[in-house]
Amino acid sequence: MQDKDAVRRRLLDRKGELLVRAGEVHADITRASGPLDKDFAEQVVQMENDAVLAGLSESTSAELAQINKALRRLDDGSYGQCVICGQDIDERRLAALPHSDRCIRCAEFASR
Ligand SMILES: [Zn+2]
Questions:
Q1: Looking at the DSSP assignment, which residues form a beta bridge with residue 88?
Q2: Separation of CA 60 and ligand 1 centre (Å)
Q3: Which residues, at least 6 apart from 95, have a Cβ–Cβ distance to it below 8 Å?
Q4: pLDDT band at 79 (very low <50, low <70, confident <90, very high)
Q5: How far does the centroid of ligand 1 lie from the alpha carbon of residue 79, in Å?
Q6: Which of 33, 43, 54, 107 lies 20 to 30 Å from 98, alpha-carbon distance?
Q7: CB of 66 within 8 A of CB of 99?
Q8: What is the pLDDT of residues 3-38, one digit of tens each?
Q9: 24 C-alpha vs ligand 1 centroid, how far in Å?
């Protein structure tokens, strides 16, 4: 079993990177929109939110969700166990993919 604090730090670092990336998307859109009158500004806020969600790629939001789940599993002690078959996930797999929640066999089976 890996050092849990190290795993947690890695997950939090990665989460920070993803959120910074999301924030950059947000900042670009805000700069591009320029000055606006009040009513229109509200509509733009709505559009901005849509654009932020669109700017966050599917893989980024999926990874964020997986990282959050992995952090919860670290807290409840189930981290490192496959959610499908309950066996320990290979350490090399966890090292390469710290947020993975299933062993290599279950992951391959699911992707077929
Ligand atoms: Zn499994």
A1: 81
A2: 24
A3: 2
A4: very high
A5: 13
A6: 54
A7: yes
A8: 889 999 999 999 999 888 777 766 665 655 555 455
A9: 37
Q: Average pLDDT for residues 85-109, to the nearest whole number?
A: 94
pLDDT of residue 57: 73
Could you state, in order of their start, the residue ranges of all structural domains in the chain? 4-79
- Ligand 1 centroid vs 53 CA: distance in angstroms? 32
- Ligand 1 center to 80 CA (angstroms): 11
| Span from the CA of 42 to the centroid of ligand 1 (angstroms) | 48
- 8 CA from centroid of ligand 1 (Å): 22
- Is 0.85 topped by the overall pTM? no
Q: What is the pLDDT of residue 49?
A: 60
The values of phi and psi at residue 79, to 5°, are: -60, 140
